[in-house]
Specification:
It is a single chain. The chain is of the alpha/beta class and 204 residues long. It contains 6 helices and 14 strands. The chain has helices at 34-43, 58-61, 64-71, 145-155, 179-185, 194-201, and strands at residues 2-6, 14-18, 24-28, 47-52, 74-78, 87-89, 94-97, 100-106, 115-119, 123-127, 130-131, 134-135, 164-167, 177-178. A 6-stranded mixed beta sheet has the order 1-2-3-4-5-6, covered by helices on one side. Strands 7-8-9-10-13-14 form a 6-stranded mixed beta sheet. The protein has a two-stranded antiparallel ribbon with strand order 11-12. Helix 4 packs across helix 6. It is globular and about 50 Å long. The structure holds zinc ion. Zinc ion (ZN) binds at residues 55, 57, 110, 128.
Length: 204
């Protein structure tokens, strides 16, 4: 698998996932990195099939138009997204990019349209749901601490420790992590009851 984390402008991460055999590719969160994404796609001779958005915030979707115009890629987002995507997805849906399988995990909490992308049961792209050492804010419109608890504790925390974590922003001590490491060291993932978590998230 060709897998590349891109951080060109600001602290947003974009990702390119591609099947090296078929050359089919997907971008996750175009963000402010379209110029670098375009360069890599052209360099590697990739065919961009999807631009997948982990949620609709503009810092994650900023490069969408450029990528769709240049490559004719389809915009993919959760069915509750305000983006009017070409392809709407929901919990459990699977996309294929060549021989690579991308499973959709619906993770609201930061927004109502938040999704994580589980790539070949090995790499988890977490958008603004989970960062290295932190979790997403729940105080923006559409944010909800109860949903965030469900996403973090009933979905992400239950994945295998070996699963690699690739967040939507460079907020942590390093650019990527694993579920096991985050369970140990991420203060937002420490065991809490739902009520304790809601109180914790509302702390200033
Ligand atoms: Zn966001």
């Amino acid at each position: 698998m060709f897998f590349k984390q891109i951080q060109q402008h600001g602290d947003n991460f974009s990702y390119i996932i591609a099947d090296e055999g078929t050359k089919e590719a997907a971008v996750v969160d175009s963000s402010y990195n379209a110029d670098e994404i375009i360069r890599i796609i052209k360099n590697q001779n990739l065919q961009l099939k999807y631009v997948i958005n982990t949620h609709g915030h503009s810092d994650h979707t900023a490069g969408n138009t450029e990528l769709t115009i240049i490559f004719g890629a389809k915009i993919v987002a959760h069915k509750k997204s305000i983006l009017h995507p070409d392809l709407s997805v929901d919990e459990g849906d699977e996309l294929n990019v060549g021989k690579i399988f991308i499973k959709i995990i619906y993770t609201p909490g930061h927004t109502t349209d938040g999704i994580c992308l589980f790539v070949d049961h090995q790499k988890l792209l977490t958008g603004d749901t989970l960062f290295v050492g932190e979790c997403g804010r729940t105080d923006f419109p559409g944010g909800n601490s109860k949903s965030m608890y469900d996403s973090l504790f009933n979905k992400l925390r239950k994945l295998d420790d070996e699963v690699e974590v690739y967040p939507g922003h460079d907020y942590g001590a390093k650019a990527s992590s694993t579920i096991g490491e985050e369970k140990k060291s991420n203060y937002t993932l420490q065991p809490r009851s739902l009520n304790d978590f809601i109180e914790f998230m509302n702390q200033p």
